[in-house]
Each structure stands twice: as structure tokens, then as C-alpha cells.
Fold:
Amino acid sequence: MNLHEYQAKEIFARYGIAVPQGSLATSPEQARAVAKSLGGERFVVKAQVHAGGRGKVGGVKLVTGVDAVEDAAKGMIGQRLVTKQTGAEGLPINSVWVERPSNIARELYVSALVDRTEEKIVFMASAEGGMDIEEVAEHSPEKIKSIHVHPAAGLQPFQARQLGFFMGLDKDQVAQFTQALLGVYRIVNELDASQVEINPLIVTAEGQIMALDAKLNFDANALYRQKAIAEMRDPSQEDEREREASKYDLNYVTLEGTIGCMVNGAGLAMATMDIVKLHGGQPANFLDVGGGTTAEKVTEAFKLITKSEDVKAIFINIFGGIVRCDLIAEGIIQACRQTGLKLPVVARLQGTNMEKGREMLESSGLKITPVSDLTEAAKTVVALANG
Ligand code: GDP
Ligand code: MN
Structure:
């Protein structure tokens, strides 16, 4: 689960990581009032969405005067922001964060996350912070230094100092940086954060270390014991279809292709997407309808898949182990009738009662092509999706 920058900055402040002074506004008038109470002439207005890359698309504005703050907020609130990290639809801007501008001398990068291979928390730092860390990682990985934390010992100050000196900080700055990093480590441990990213972490002209941006991600499996974090969730920033899917206990992830996939079992769902790609198609989603699928679940899954206008064909790939193929067929037929489905469907049913299931599909009079061979099924659905 993600948080907004403003929520992450509030947490940072509590854990001893310096952040610029600011406040949240949900209307242009409120943004003006916030600026007035902050005082001074110049302000930064930042769109609050669950995505980075805002700076490059007008989601971060440096302005002079409270009128300009109100105007900037007016231009953001109620709009959708499309950044490199959001996908084409973008995310709704419901609020802006107004803060005092910082005098930036240097922009650094620092993050902490769980390295699953090493089974440790890893910290990464680079002197090349700012907006293009992905480029740095790709073209000059030597400019990023990683250190792993031993779970029994915890983050040691000397490790933080190593990262600080690597980024060319002076002695006083390294001391501040070490404090900040120990705070990050406590956030990971005490709040079950799975990722903390500060990009940029700045050195101000006055030599102060500060988090100018803040990204926090939490382990969803730990939210039951992190009530305060769970309450900060903002459903408006989540994918509508994924939210809908979770209501029906469907494992669904939106993707950008044209072939809707309905599969039981996560492994088979992955293999299905692979084979679709192998034959030149692009899956529109990952969907695992689970083992104990019911006709109702199949119907809901169909509704989700067909909500996207990009979907041109549907691929049903079910292995009837626990669930019977005739029940699945019944669900498919019911779903097609209820949703008035116009799209071509390729259905591959294998396992218990598969003959009966196939017969039902064939005699339903619907536009469903039953195919039993997986490769043939994939080729057929790709051809149908490409028109
Ligand atoms: P992101 O693009 O979504 O990651 O948003 P950031 O919060 O990282 O801001 C993007 C960029 O805006 C930063 O890298 C800074 O260069 C610039 N920026 C943000 N706040 C300030 C500020 O207070 N003063 C100045 N001069 N630049 C800022
Ligand atoms: Mn940033």
C-alpha cells in the first residue's frame, strides 16, 4: 500500500528526518491560506498523487506570491495527472501540498527496501539524485552504492557514514545524513514499510540535509497490525478494476494489452500470459479466479475484463481440478448472456467433466470458440484480437 507525499513527510518528521515546512490543501482557497500562514514570498505547490515523475509534467510548481499559489492549485485540483509512472489514464489530484521553497545545493538519492534474494534490508544511495534515477541505474550503475543490513545487528552508523562519504558529503552533513538514515531504518522496522524512497534528498545552500520528496510503500500483509497506516489509504489512487476485483476475492492486475485473460491458478495465469506474448499478443490483465470458482465469480470476472475498451478478445484457460469444467462453462454462458458480450471468446477447458463443458459452450449459440490445445488456443485468440 502506498501513501501520499504529505503523509510520508509527516511520518518522516516524526522519525527525525528533516522535511520542509508545509501543509495540505484540498481547495485553491485553502492553498492560498496555507501559503499565507507559511509566510514569505515563494512557495512550492505539489500535486498529491500516488506516483512520481510529477516534476516533469507540471505537478510541482515553484511560484511567487499567494495569488500564484491559488492559481497553481486551481490548475491541479480536480485534474488528472499523467506521469511516466501512472499509465495513460493518470491519477486524480484531490489535494496539493504547499511548502516553503528550499535552497537546493545538491540533489541526492536514497532508498531502503527489502532485498528478497539476500533476505535483508538494502539501502541504496547516489549523488545523482533528482528526477532521473532510473537513467542512472541503467547507464551508470557504479554511481549507486548499496549496503545490506544484518537483521540481528540492525543498521550500523558506520554503514550510514559509508553511504554519506560515497555521496561526497562533508563531516557535518554525514552526521545529519546518519540521523536521517537511522530514522528510515526505524520506519522500515517499526511500521512494516517495504520501501522508503527519498528522491531528492537535498543538501541546502546552508548545508542542511532534507527530504524534499517522500515515497513510502507498506507490506499489505502487515496492515492488520499497522492500523494507523491502514487508515491513511486513499482508494481514489488505486486502480478501479483492481479494487472491484478484491471485493470478489479475484486476483486481478490491470495491464495494457488487448487480450483479456481469465484463468484459474496463478501459475497457469502467468503461463497463459507468456504464451499469448510468445504468439505476438498482449495480455490486457492478469487474472486468477482461484480454485473454488463459482458462476457468480466468473460473471464478475467477465465484467471486469470487458470494462476496458482496449480488450478485443477474451482467453479463458481453465484447468478443472478442484472445480468442474461444466460449472465453469455454465458460469461463462451466464456471464456472456448477462453482460451481452460482443467480444470473441476462446475457451480452453481441461480436466474434470471437460467434454460436458465443451458441449455446453458449443450448443450455447454464443461466440465462443472451444480449443483444447494450448498453443492453438493462444494463436486463435491472438488472431481474433488482431482483427
Ligand atoms: P517528482 O517529480 O514527482 O519526483 O517530485 P519531486 O518532489 O521529487 O520534485 C521534482 C523536482 O522539483 C525536484 O527534483 C526539485 O528539482 C524540484 N523542487 C521540488 N521542490 C523544490 C523546492 O522547494 N525548491 C526548488 N528550487 N526546487 C524544488
Ligand atoms: Mn521525486
About this structure: The pocket of manganese (II) ion (ligand 2) is lined by residues 52, 199, 213 (CB under 6 Å).
